[in-house]
Amino acid sequence: MTRRFLFVLGSSRPDGNTELLARTAAEQLPAGTEQEWFDLAEQPLPDFVDVRHDAEIPRPEGAAAHLLDATLAATDLVIASPLYWYSVSAQTKRYLDHWAGWLRLPGVDFKARMAGRTLWGVTALAHEEFEVADPLVGTLRTSAAYLGMRFGGVLLGNGSKPGDVRTDTEALARAKTFFAQEAPLARFPYER
Ligand SMILES: Cc1cc2nc3c(=O)[nH]c(=O)nc-3n(C[C@H](O)[C@H](O)[C@H](O)COP(=O)(O)O)c2cc1C
């Protein structure tokens, strides 16, 4: 099966460190790997409204419809979010919240179709001690576990202003092999 990577960019500014790190990792993907990049700042999703238990759940429209299709088409989903308050950005969180609606959309079978796909994370943060990003890592890993997905881990890089991550040579080196790593089935914390 041809691998298809969907990169979902969650920064609130263009050309940031997270995107730079994600693009460095993507450069190493084997030829023939399909890639789509979706920038949540350029094509914002509407606020999520919880209509899961209403009689009728409206079909997504516009950017949300496109992103649903792109998510379902991806074998590998890369959430590239800067670290904001130790977790994912609001734009990224809104994307994850929309999953809760997509899970209930009749005829979509979101959970069954996402099972077995691989979730990866990329993040940039100003703090030099990367353990502070544990809440972001936990959010992504546990969300992957909920959907029965594989989890390839999170590529972390240091930087504050745009371009700073270029000086994090260790992160750039990790980026070179990041997507070649094993991605085991994600587990809930109580299963490990
Ligand atoms: C709203 C906001 C919250 C942030 N929270 C954190 C944080 O919790 N820990 C941290 O190390 N850096 C934090 N930062 C710094 C960013 O993670 C850092 O500037 C990063 O390089 C931004 O990624 P980007 O260039 O891809 O946008 C925060 C920045 C903003 C704007």
TrEMBL record:
Keywords: Flavoprotein, FMN. Pfam families: FMN_red. Gene3D superfamilies: 3.40.50.360. SUPFAM superfamilies: Flavoproteins (SSF52218). Residues 5-100 form the NADPH-dependent FMN reductase-like domain. It comes from the Bacteria. GO terms for molecular function: oxidoreductase activity. This is Flavodoxin. It comes from Streptomyces longwoodensis.
